[in-house]
Amino acid sequence: MARLNDPVTMLKGVGAVKAKQLENLNIFTLRDLICHFPRGYEDRTQLKTIEKLEVDVPACFRAMVMNTPRTSHIRKGLDLTRVQVADHTGRLNLTFFNNKYVSENLQYGKEYIFYGAVSGDFIGYNMTNPIFEALDSPPVVTRRVMPIYPLTAGLTNAAMLKLVRQALAICDTPPEILPESVRTEYEILPADRAYQAIHEPQSMTEAEQAKKRLIFEEFFVFSAGLSLMRISRAEKQSMPYENTELRPFLASLPFTLTGAQSRAIDDILADFRSGAPMNRLVQGDVGSGKTMVAAAAAYCAANNGRQSALMAPTEILAEQHYHSLKKIFEPLGISVALLTGSQTPKEKRTVREALASGEIQVAVGTHALITDSTQFNNLGLVIADEQHRFGVAQRSRLSAKGEDVHLLVMSATPIPRTLALLMYGDLEVSILDELPPGREPVDTFLVNESYRARINAFIRKHATEGHQCFVVCPAVEENEDLGIKAATVWAQTLQNTVFPDLRIALLHGQMKAAEKEAAMASFARGDADVMVATTVIEVGVDVPNATLMVIEDADRFGLSQLHQLRGRVGRGSAKSFCILTSRNRNPETLQRLKAFCKTTDGFKIAEEDLKLRGPGDFFGSRQSGLPTFKVANLSYDLTTLKQAQEASAQWINDYGASDTPEAIALRDRIGDLFQRAEGTMN
Ligand code: ADP
Ligand code: MG
Fold first, then answer.
1. pLDDT of residue 397
2. Of the four, 50, 121, 314, 450, which is 20 to 30 A from 627 by CA?
């Protein structure tokens, strides 16, 4: 018996050339081969009669050879072999190109099973290059469900199937990781059957069952992994903070904290005192005051002699945080420094030295702050703001910066619970479900083109009163879909013809990072009245003076995205508005947008969005910390995800620490998974 880790070169027919081809598909071992799953199937189980064959629809049929195949040499390199076959319903002419095998193997008067598609032309039906097997031979390429594999140059589907078969014949399938109770409850195939059936299903139904099992397995491993990570971190040691007194900090703030902020801070202080490193997500809608929660945590760390690092996804956000923290901390005698890529080498060096010596207590910067060579004297707390990008693997790697570093992740994106578990299942969660008092909700309206003049007048009114406006367009440049207002063109139109007297700025995703930051910073300083932008403004930037958000062709956006965009206004004391324009007439679309106008609850919107559009908006290109799933597709397999999460939570609870064969195999798989995720981060 061979082993899963044995190299594919041990298989018959795999020499240097095949091995290289397999390598292109990341297949090195028998395990890789067995886990190289088909991307689809062809159902060749049904036999049709010749009469029932449909043009261009491949099918299997049984027929007798009516004459001796005749090969004619058309020209150099082109031989045609023709033969006629028939069943009780009709006759069919077959044509083969350059296929010597045919004349040797199709015998006059014998029956075969063919698989192919007829093409119809004026002479009648014809079939080109069907595959076939003798009636009495075992079903290899006909009368079965054929797996269709992802391939690479030089490697045929048939060759791949042969190799997989060989591997399955000489080697055990990957071990069972799902306990029997789970398999029974969720009606899931056992591992050995699933791995066999995904490659060689008896029926399409069995192929589906095998796929479901493997998807379930993937989610199960991932969810269980997160839970185990959380549990194992809770077992780590961290010097409890003794001084958790916040009164001087609280007294210095120009406002009192909201109840939700106080509760989140209490959670954090309890973590600090616990003696285990904190792993906490603070989730709160835009404007709920997450920065103050972070500040309280950093204040407490400083009072216990530990440094904090606050990471923001962009330089402009980092600068914003730096300024607001500096204002609070300097009077309290806590030193704050900014470290970003655009500083001069000398500035950076000075800050790095001060961090290494411990002179700086709170460092604010971008991602690089924690991932690059920056040395801290005594890092105690890492805060990641607005980050999907700070993924599981990075969190698990954090301990490299210090065994006992506390982690606080802040997210403004309300994420439906199922997905949150997938992204943040290794974290404890505090939710800021309350906005600071006096914040008026942003009034939202849906209008059509007939309101254009009024929208323009409204923009002018806000500008004249000294406020600023955002106008968001769905695309950068005019594409084939002429309906979309491209930001660039629209900015020009507004500047040249509608508001020649106002200052119009432009921001879009095709600008360089530095240009984007400069444009945003300049707008935040009040250098322009109207900023025309694409969705790049979505992330966290604070321009309290902006009071109007116009979203063009709003039906093009996801609801969660609209919610994030709307959150860019209503951040100051002045009443703010959001106007959605749409030329869409679809009643459902309009209904959805109208519902959005009436609610400000980010979680409700997120759930709705998930139902409507799948999880793409939540993960999309912004995520990177998640491992990639091999079989599972987050857009389609949400039900399975939910089941796997329930099952894994239950299982961890009941058996997490046990040493059943399944538990041991599961822990192995989890180890592999996170190692792989880690690998993709570097
Ligand atoms: P977000 O959760 O979106 O990061 P911020 O932390 O940027 O929110 O806070 C938004 C605004 O609310 C900031 O101007 C901040 O100073 C203010 N703020 C935060 N907490 C309170 C509070 N308890 N009372 C009044 N204003 C607050
Ligand atoms: Mg924020």
1. 64
2. 314
Instruction: Please tell me the number of the ligand nearest to residue 385's CA.
Output: 2
287 C-alpha to center of ligand 1: Å?
A: 5
Whether 677 has a pLDDT exceeding 80, the answer reads no
Q: What is the DSSP letter of 232?
A: H
Q: pTM for this one?
A: 0.70
Give the model confidence (pLDDT) of 109-135 as tens digits.
Answer: 999 999 999 987 655 678 999 999 999
Tell which residue, 385, 425, 159, 151, has the closest CA to residue 288. Answer: 385
pLDDT at 628 over 80: no
Dihedral over alpha carbons 434, 436, 437, 442 (to 10 degrees): -80
3-state helix, strand, coil in the chain (%, to 5): 45, 20, 35
17-34 residue pLDDT tens: 999 999 999 999 999 999
Q: Do 374 and 339 touch, CB atoms closer than 8 A?
A: yes
Q: Give Cα separations from 62 to 91, 136, 146, 541 (angstroms).
A: 11, 12, 18, 68
Q: Which long-range contacts (CB under 8 A, 24 or more apart) does 192-197 make?
A: 195/34, 195/168, 196/168
Protein residue with least CA distance to atom 15, ligand 1: 289
Closest residue to atom 17 of ligand 1, CA basis: 289
The whole-angstrom separation of Cα 254 and Cα 252 is 7
**Closest residue (by CA) to atom 13 of ligand 1?**
289
- What is 467-493 written as a DSSP string? -EEEEE-SBSS--S-TTS-BHHHHHHH
> Can you read off the two tokens belonging to residue 191?
């591992």
Ligand nearest to the CA of residue 386, numbered in listed order: 2
What stretch of H or E contains 248?
Answer: helix 247-252
Q: For 541, which DSSP code?
A: -
Q: Is the dihedral of CA 363, 509, 592, 494 positive or negative?
A: positive
CB atoms within 10 A of CB 416: 19
CA dihedral 631, 636, 637, 639 (to 10 degrees): -170
- CA-CA distance, 289 to 385, in Å (whole number)? 12
Q: Kindly report the CA angle at 103 between 98 and 109, in degrees rounded to 5?
A: 145
- Any long-range contacts for 17-23 (C-beta under 8 Å, 24+ apart)? 17/154, 18/155, 18/159, 18/163, 21/152, 21/153, 21/154, 21/155, 22/155, 22/163
121 Cα–ligand 2 center, Å: 66
